[in-house]
């Protein structure tokens, strides 16, 4: 789609994300998604000092909330809201929730929005999610013997490797760096050190993917509050200022197999709205259900030219104290993927990073952070993509 068909995005006016909350993930849980949402609400109250009954907006992302709709949570938790949103974009839900809530805040339609993503993981949850994920999968993928994200991302990974000459060792460097970061994150599921040899020697899943190319489903929740600066200051809080964001769906539909995402169409606006460049970014959190998507984002978000991610990864240290701090929690590949909360993980960490509250994963001097999202995979591509830039004090 030509950029000339885009409207002119307007800068955000004094919008902040505050009170980042991460619940400790569990490999399996007997609690429903509603319990995890309630626990996240409790965390927001503790982090902000603002009672949840004062939140007049709710943005919710979950794959396992059914049979409840998002609006049912208002009665469950005694909330009276004047704005509500339900995100169904998988790993892009967090970016989308910020974009919609921010404009509603600017318009005065709402004052405090609780942005929550939560999912449970019973012993059979993941299989059930795959079985009912989409009509496309049921009609066009499963009858041919392929099923689930592993098969789809193996297809994308093979095509990307063939196009750009990328090797498994190149992907492995991403996974190894993220595992090193996870060792500093007390909430990460993966706590065993991993070498490149460990990565390469892991049992195969779907060629060319091995065990450590694939996220581990877990139960958990991520959350934050979005509000105007005047509201934040009234409550004596500090937060991350929203500088810019982009969102795009079904980008480059004529590409036979996805090797680029919607970020590539809007990346100039992402940085232009914020008045910064990729070189100014201190910390990056990409959506990382599989390492091939990380490489696509490095390129499409302007950190290196298309097809040169393997060299970029080789030339940089992606750990917390390295030259290019990336997925400082360990990302989903080592921290775990709590369903739809996987799309909020990087956002919550970016808020912490630019406000200097990331603790053991803090990047020294981080003031400008980028978080991206990607979601809703069909066989040959993911349909949703987005990114956001947050600034700390003085940005």
TrEMBL record:
Residues 271-377 form the Thiolase C-terminal domain. GO terms for molecular function: acetyl-CoA C-acyltransferase activity. The keyword Transferase applies. It holds the Pfam family Thiolase_C_1. InterPro entries: Thiolase, Thiolase-like, Thiolase_C_2. It comes from the Bacteria. Keywords: Transferase. PANTHER family: ACETYL-COA C-ACETYLTRANSFERASE (PTHR42870), NON-SPECIFIC LIPID-TRANSFER PROTEIN-LIKE 2 (PTHR42870:SF1). This is Acetyl-CoA acetyltransferase.
């Amino acid at each position: 789609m030509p950029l000339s068909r885009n409207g002119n995005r307007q800068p955000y006016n004094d919008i902040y994300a505050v009170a980042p909350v991460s619940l400790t993930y569990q490999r399996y849980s007997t609690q429903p998604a509603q319990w995890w949402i309630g626990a996240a609400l409790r965390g927001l109250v503790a982090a902000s000092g603002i009672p949840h009954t004062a939140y007049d907006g709710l943005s919710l992302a979950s794959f396992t909330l059914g049979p409840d709709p998002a609006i049912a949570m208002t009665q469950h938790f005694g909330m009276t809201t004047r704005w509500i949103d339900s995100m169904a974009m998988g790993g892009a839900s967090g970016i989308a929730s910020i974009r919609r809530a921010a404009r509603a805040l600017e318009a005065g339609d709402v004052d405090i929005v609780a942005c929550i993503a939560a999912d449970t993981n019973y012993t059979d949850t993941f299989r059930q999610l795959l079985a009912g994920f989409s009509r496309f999968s049921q009609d066009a993928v499963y009858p041919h013997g392929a099923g689930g994200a592993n098969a789809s991302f193996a297809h994308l990974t093979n095509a990307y490797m063939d196009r750009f000459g990328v090797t498994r060792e190149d992907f492995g460097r991403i996974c190894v760096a993220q595992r090193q970061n996870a060792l500093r994150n007390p909430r990460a599921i993966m706590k065993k050190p991993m070498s490149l040899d460990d990565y390469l020697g892991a049992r195969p899943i779907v060629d060319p993917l091995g065990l450590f190319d694939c996220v581990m489903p877990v139960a958990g929740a991520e959350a934050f509050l979005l509000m105007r600066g005047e509201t934040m200051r009234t409550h004596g809080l500090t937060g991350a200022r929203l500088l810019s964001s982009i969102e795009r769906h079904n980008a480059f539909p004529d590409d036979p197999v996805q090797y680029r995402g919607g970020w590539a169409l809007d990346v100039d606006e992402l940085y232009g709205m914020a008045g910064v460049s990729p070189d100014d970014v201190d910390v990056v959190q990409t959506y990382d259900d599989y390492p091939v998507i990380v490489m696509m984002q490095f390129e499409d978000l302007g950190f290196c030219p298309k097809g040169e991610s393997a060299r970029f990864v080789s030339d940089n240290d992606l750990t917390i104290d390295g030259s290019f701090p990336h997925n400082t929690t360990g990302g989903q590949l080592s921290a775990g993927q709590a369903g739809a909360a996987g799309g909020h993980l990087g956002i919550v960490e970016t808020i912490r990073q630019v406000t200097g509250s990331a603790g053991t994963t803090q990047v020294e001097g981080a003031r400008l952070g980028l978080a991206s999202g990607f979601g809703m995979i069909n066989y040959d591509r993911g349909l949703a993509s987005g990114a956001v830039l947050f600034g700390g004090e003085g940005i």
